[in-house]
């Protein structure tokens, strides 16, 4: 079988999301092959190729040059959102399929323009909202489809992000997380990323939100800039919100509440609780973090039957045999290779519009229709 040639944007020799979440799958599969790398310089791309033992690939310092490579079938963009539009557009114009990390664009307008261009070029797209590919989510979808809890009534989700950059310790690479406003973006970048990921997998289970009310708050007004264990600067002012409370109704009539806070959980294995309530029973999901897109080893699903009072544990669907961060991303690649896309650019635009609604609802203190 001919492998799908990947042209990768943003695989750094210094580590990061691309090496942790994408590389384990791409290096282990016979369905894909990295054939080109684009970084800020050819030297940087070559350093990545050397570090990760990527052979038979070409190094580039521009997307425009990389997409001229006939071996590139799929362009993967895994850099900060500020550059997505300018890096992805040339790939689409060259007629390449594209995978972009979430968020698709810095604004909904950018996301819509990229989606329109992809449709005009007739290319396939997918976006890194990988939570919907989780075995946790597919298990819940099956349980609901089987009707064990009856008619879906309500969903209550609450949890901690459990990542330092949402609390009081900020690595230099995420310095923009501290800002309520970042140049060229709409909404708040940190919240766009975290709410987008978590609400997306929620919607994949209970249905798309049709309305939203929102309360946002900055609970950690000062942060430390840290590099691993080294504190670079202390007492930096943070204006971005790190606490989110949402509620509304989905398109299928389910009431939902959603609460996420930045920083650590109360205790290990106590960072996430999600009740999915039906008229015949209830599902409870627990685990160490609300970030099911990243995953956790300790998620548990329990099902309660109202009539008998019996509570049972659900058996999970299988996950890929990869490091935790790569499991859901690997499933996105698998779906693409199979001719499907679990999350297209069109899906990403829907999530962008929801986030616009969140920020509007918070600013205006009103219910917003999505």
User: Number of helical segments?
Assistant: 9
N-to-C order of helices and strands: EHEHEHEHEHEHEEHEEEEEEEEEHHE
Basic shape:
globular
First-last Cα distance: 44 Å
Question: Which segments are poorly predicted (pLDDT under 50) over 5 or more consecutive residues?
Answer: none
Helix content: 25-40%
Strand content: 25-35%
Task: Walk across the major sheet and give the strand order.
Answer: 17-16-15-14-7-13-12-9-18
Radius of gyration, in Å, reads 21 Å
Descriptive report:
By secondary structure, this protein is an alpha/beta fold. Helix content is about 30%, strand content about 25%. It has nine helices and 18 strands. The strands form three sheets. A nine-stranded mixed beta sheet has the order 17-16-15-14-7-13-12-9-18. β1, α1 and β2 form a beta-alpha-beta unit. α5 runs antiparallel to α9 and α6 packs parallel to α7. The radius of gyration is 21 Å and the shape is globular. It starts with a strand and ends with a strand.
